[in-house]
Give the backbone structure.
Amino acid sequence: MEEDESTPACLPPWVELEYCHMIKLAGPSASVHFTHLSANAGSSLGSKLLSFSEKREEDKLASYAVHSVSILELLQQKNVPLSKVCLLDPKAGNALQPGDKNEFGWFLFGVRDDPPRDRTSELRRLGFPSRHLGPVQMTTDTALAVTKRVVDDGVPLDEIPYVDFPTIRFNARESVEMPFRYIREGGDPLLPPGMRDLLHEDLNKSFEF
């Protein structure tokens, strides 16, 4: 997971929720690295990840690490060649396939935006081989979950159940439309724990005068 040069001193709450969700979605056989973070952002995220892990001891979570170094520096430290790292890039020519598990050992995700600002362009220039996950932008945790289902579980990309731009309803009068694609689970979008409450809180703030 690579941030960019505009990473703030502290990450927004929704970003930290998505990142916590990622270590759950990745599962115990994976390691998740969060790179290129400022000291404050890294410290805050590290605390959130630790708290998330402690509250879910019964769950099988991925190991994780928070880094201030860039992805290139981390790969050099780990002696990982760029050819073994797959950049998940909406502009890639080829879709992710189950067979890509045999070609890549690392999968690299950029930061998502609404509207999309192509933050992946900075990583694209570094020369990573790339794959796309379809035509609709996903949240970062969703992109990781989809990647895992394809490469670990062998599920083709077009056979994963999705919901696009879902409306999250809080009551008869309050709702918010999410501008992303999510995995559909039990008829609902698979959201990070705590995201629904955060969305409702932000919605209420937007109507304060």
Q: What stands out?
A: The mean pLDDT is 89. The chain is about 30% helix and 15% strand. The radius of gyration is 17 Å.
